[in-house]
Amino acid sequence: MPERQAHKDERKAEEKRHVEAEAETEKASHVGAKTTTLTLAEEARRREQDSDSVMASSYIVRGKTYADAVLLPPVAPPKKKQILLAFCGCESAANFRQLIQAFLRWAEVKVIVTKSAKKFVKPPFPDEVPVYMDNDQWILWEKKVAVCLHAELYMWADAMVIAPLSVHALAKIAGGFCDTLLTSVVRAWNCVRKPLFVVPSMDPLWKENYTTLRNYISLHELGILIITLLIQKKDGKLPEPDEISKFVRDNIWCI
């Protein structure tokens, strides 16, 4: 019996040594793989550093540094919006200078002055603001210049603002007339692609007339935005130039 017990103990000890040996072998293989992985990573990092140094030296030879190659080009400042302003013959057109200055703070401006607006809108205009009148369209036509002024103004502008819009011009636009430079531009305007804002100004009796309401509906169907209906003034007065400019700036969309 003692011999049999000793034999069993010897077998257990041998099995234990065998298991420990296998464990040591497996551990050594993991360490070797890890070492190989680290070695490969270090080699890749070393190659990248070498290539950077070569690239840097090549740019230095050309009078540049490697930093010059990886820096992004400077971002251009945002382009100013291009606003086409139009004035009709109303007393509120006397504020045209304040309105122009309000828009010039954030946009480039071109101006259309109707024939009746000349009684209220008078020079001088800011030097950087081109001014167009009905005669300009016919002068180009008489000179046989291959330029369609109302189309050129439409293509240039990101948005159009008619402030003030007289009851007479309102009726013309609603009826589809294009017998002036202003109405020609409006007739060519695509309100789906570019916004068109108007600020109607008229006698209170005209404002309450059913014909005016019908014309408002026509403008709405054309996609024209009526600022006086969107900015509710408690005293019933027209929006101030700064309010008009801010409303257009906040609600403009451009192609």
Question: What does it look like?
Answer:
With 255 residues, the protein is α/β, with parallel strands linked by helices. The chain has two domains: 2-70; 81-251, Rossmann fold (3-Layer(aba) Sandwich). Helix content is 55%, strand content 12%. The chain has eleven helices and six strands. The chain has helices at residues 2-61, 66-70, 96-104, 134-142, 149-156, 167-175, 181-188, 204-208, 210-222, 227-230, 241-251; strands spanning 81-87, 107-113, 131-132, 159-165, 196-200, 225-226. A six-stranded parallel β-sheet has the order 3-2-1-4-5-6, sandwiched between helices. α3 links the parallel β1 (81-87) and β2. The longest helix has 60 residues, at 2-61. It is elongated. The model is unreliable at 54-62 (pLDDT under 50).
Write the layout of secondary structure elements.
Elements: H1 2-61, H2 66-70, E1 81-87, H3 96-104, E2 107-113, E3 131-132, H4 134-142, H5 149-156, E4 159-165, H6 167-175, H7 181-188, E5 196-200, H8 204-208, H9 210-222, E6 225-226, H10 227-230, H11 241-251
Parallel strand pairs: 1-2, 1-4, 2-3, 4-5, 5-6
Helix pairs in contact: 3-11, 5-7, 6-9
In a nutshell, what does this entry contain?
This protein has 255 residues and is of the alpha/beta class. It contains eleven helices and six strands.
